[in-house]
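User: Can you help me understand a structure? I only have the sequence.
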Amino acid sequence: MPDVAAFSKMMVDEQGKTFRSCLQQLIPKSEPEMDQRRTLLGSFQTIKSLLSYNDAAGNFWIPDVLLASLPPELWQVLTFWAVTHLAPKNLGQTREEVVRFALFWHLCVFNNEKAARWAFAAIEGSKGGSDFPGEALYRRFTGNEGEYCAHKLISPKDFSEKVCKEESSSWRSYADRFVVGGIRNHLLSDWWNGGRKMLPWLQRTYIQRAFPQYEPLSEHEDDLPYDLDHLCPSKDWGDNWRNLQKRLVGLDQNQTDTVYRCKEVVGGGIGNLRVLDASKNRGKQDRDVADEMSFILRDDQPPQAADAEEMANFAFAPEHRGVWKKIAYPGSKVPDRKWDEDRLKAFQEAVERRSAWLYERFYQDLGYEQWMSGKQDS
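Assistant: Let's start by predicting it. Here is the structure, written out as tokens:
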């Protein structure tokens, strides 16, 4: 991956003759007999078609707005593979593995340049089969050969056990949650804080249905038709401390100090976030969670059709309604919403359980157990 100066040198030196010839082979031409798939543009279009929505894709597609956010190094790797190897025996399986790999990279890779170098070498050196080597690259990235550039996935069961701690009513800090023996659990903390970038995929059906004509522009956040919305509004738990402190009921000084230190950690986690149409988000302002999602107050099993559709739209588990109901103040204004020990505990539990459930959806819907089988450590 040469920089501009190195690229310029390659273009003018004697070796530039060969280099320019290789570049020209990637430029699309109009001759019908030319294999367009072997051009740079053709290969890019092939990869985009594998990643984009398709009626037969099931869970294995990525909304365009999220495609625009994928790292350029990932696009380079996928396009390089398409140029050199794409002749799949089973296009459906290839789609699944490419989407699975792309979303793993987006969530877990922390050194894009190193990941790209390793992937280029692995793809160039591979012999024989034409299927995309997602599992092999996962193992390489996560340290199968010692050095690593991505965090390992863990099973949903392990994730839930590490995140959901029901024995304490006190809100936990960042260190309490993710640091054990001085070592940070990167996957857990990255999902809690950065998993929000996966919400367009977790709510992909809603995105597809609500914004069918939207064409994303990279790095133009103001153009997005949706916002990140807090289920329990930030004004409720993240208000000016003087105002919030007046709404704390029956807490000792230690508990009060803990709320002050941890309110952004608890309220800002992925478990309290969803993607919502920007116009609707502006209209909801500081409405209570039950006023915004009335299905929380109902416990019918199975949920009525309208409730089930709304919960699916916003990546909300029906079985979590009970714990969210414990924090609800339907019809209230923010100053009337008190925080006692029980409500504090319920809110933390609700955010933790939804965070774990969203990770489970990510892991299971994309079939990562295929990569984890036979894996010796987690």
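Now, to help you interpret it: The chain is about 55% helix and 5% strand. The first strand starts at residue 179 and ends at 180. Let me know which part you'd like to focus on.
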